[in-house]
Structure formats: C-alpha cells, structure tokens
C-alpha cells in the first residue's frame, strides 16, 4: 500500500450502471474487501433494486492504512447464481480517502 497515506481511512467503491433491460441480477451480489491485517469483510447488495440506466456508486467497504504496510488491498464482486446475466456496466473501481 505504498501509494496510500498511512493512518488514513479509505473506502472502496464500484461505479456501476444496470442498463434498462438488464437481467439476471435478481439475486444479491456479494461484495468483499480484503485489507492487510484485517479479516475479509463481505456485504450483499441487490443490484436489481438500483435505478436502471443511471450511474451509481456501490460501496464495497472501508479500511485504514498503517505505517510500513506494503501489501495489497483487494476487493471483488461475485454472484454465483448459475444463469445468464446481462446489462451490468462497470465504469470504475475507486479507492479514495473517506470524507
């Protein structure tokens, strides 16, 4: 985490849009954040309830950096329902100081 400032609380978010006509997202998605020295944390979000055709930020989680850490932070989006999905657009994954 050499590019992040030690001692700062950060948040990870996805910027997503569910297109009109998108389908297969009726079941919740699991968002997981893994940071050095912390237990992986997951939360479930139902993308199907988001307004269609609009960009939205979906928070994955938060973490705090510590001096001397050089390990990676990872976050993921997973939905394991075994059916076709379409219409989800991922614009970006953002890590930023929490305001």
Structure description:
This protein has 99 residues and is mainly β. The protein has one domain. The chain has no helices and six strands. The chain has strands at 9-23, 29-34, 41-45, 56-64, 74-78, 86-97. The strands form two sheets. The protein has a three-stranded antiparallel beta sheet, with no helix packed on it. It has a three-stranded antiparallel beta sheet with strand order 3-2-5, with no helix packed on it. Strand 2 (29-34) and strand 3 (41-45) form a beta hairpin. The mean pLDDT is 90.
Low-confidence stretches: none
Rg (C-alpha, Å) = 15 Å
- Along the chain, the helix and strand elements come as EEEEEE
The number of helical elements comes to 0
Please give the order of strands in the largest beta sheet: 4-1-6
- Structure summary, number of beta strands: 6
Q: Write down the overall geometry.
A: elongated
Tell me roughly what share of residues is in helical segments.
under 10%
Topology summary:
Elements: E1 9-23, E2 29-34, E3 41-45, E4 56-64, E5 74-78, E6 86-97
Antiparallel strand pairs: 1-4, 1-6, 2-3, 2-5
InterPro entries: PP2-like, PP2-like/Lectin
GO molecular function, one term: carbohydrate binding
Pfam families: PP2 (PF14299)
What are the salient characteristics of this protein?
elongated, three-stranded antiparallel sheet, 99 residues, 53% strand, mainly beta, single chain
What is this entry, summarized?
The chain is built from no helices and six strands. With 99 residues, it is mostly beta strands.
């Amino acid at each position: 985490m050499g590019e992040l400032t030690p001692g700062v609380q950060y948040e990870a978010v996805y910027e997503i849009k569910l297109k009109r006509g998108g389908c297969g997202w009726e079941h919740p998605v699991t968002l997981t954040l893994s940071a050095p020295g912390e237990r992986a944390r997951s939360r479930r979000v139902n993308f199907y309830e988001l307004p269609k055709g609009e960009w939205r930020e979906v928070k994955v989680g938060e973490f705090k950096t510590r001096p001397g850490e050089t390990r990676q932070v990872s976050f993921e989006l997973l939905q394991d329902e075994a059916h076709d999905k379409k219409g989800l657009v991922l614009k970006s994954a953002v890590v930023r100081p929490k305001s």
